Amino acid sequence: MNKILVITGSRGEYGYIRPLLQYAFSSESQLKCDVLVTNMHLLDKHGYSLKEFENDNIPVKYKIENTLEGNTEIGMLKSLFLFGLSLTDILRNEHYDIILLAGDRGEQLISSITGFHLNIPIYHIQAGERSGHIDGMSRHAIARFTHIHLAANNDAANRLKQFGEEVFRIKNIGAPQIDELLTLEKTGNQLIDADIGVENFDKYILFVYHPVSEDCSDNHQGCINALKALRETNQNIVIIYPNSDAGSYRIIREIESLNSINIKKFRNLERNKYLYLLKNCLFIIGNSSSGIIEAPFYKVPCINIGRRQIGRYRSTNVIDTDTSLDSIRASIVKVRDVDFIEKVKNCSSPYGDGQSTAKLIELLINHNTTQKLLVKDLTC
User: What span, in angstroms and rounded, lies between the C-alpha atoms of 236 and 282?
Assistant: First the structure.
């Protein structure tokens, strides 16, 4: 039975790995998984999403507290290297057949470098996608240190081939976070409404806005402009706090300055509750990948602001806009246009068929570490 270390540092990654972990810790599992959490999962200011693992009865073996206070680019960098030191000690003392990573964040990059140098096969969920500047470059740097690329669609798989990755390493399995959208509870909606306090919000807009480290000033102004434009609609607004990247404190201050009966704010939400809000909102606005990956599955319109998701493969539910107030206002007008709403009703998710986790489990069960797998060679 293969022994796998699953590493995660942000709440967004939990959707990628949750279906797999639910299987891994079930009675029928043919895998042995240990879970390592770090960074955002352990931060109260960002919702302490470790609670999600606890609520799902998923045991966490390692908790690495690495995030330095200050919320600056220097602090982010130092935090990443602190994480690398701790991870190296863990991997020196415990044997793993596979390290499983997901996404494009710095902790995943450090993990790929560490595991690669210790000759531990790396599997990378949602490899090959484009996703902004620093995040996107991190994702493609991870590819160089990855042994098996788990692509979410043909666009990503083809990009990996163009980068020179050997074809046998590329597995187009779809996006695992789409899987549980198929099984999201269709009953008990009133209970969820009451539990998260939106039972009186018959219609609402979902706002999720993260910092962009390489463009803090313009990104912060984009948040201010978006919130101003949203308040002008007189609609109910549900706001989810940003991730822990440099610049997040400024966004949080803007969010916390808002006080209105038609605004609900959450530092973090359990996965099923967030998906419920996404499924039932008028539209999602901000720069979260969930507007591009999950929203089209529910036929939910998305206004994508700024460059954080630039280049990411998308469906017809997305309206892209810059961070200016006039552009955001114009996008809000367009997203409520009858013709656009009808167009979104016919959109489909380009991120898989909801069977990704089953494909991933099969790959992990049948994994065999060979010299051919460990020794990489680029084709160009």
Answer: 10
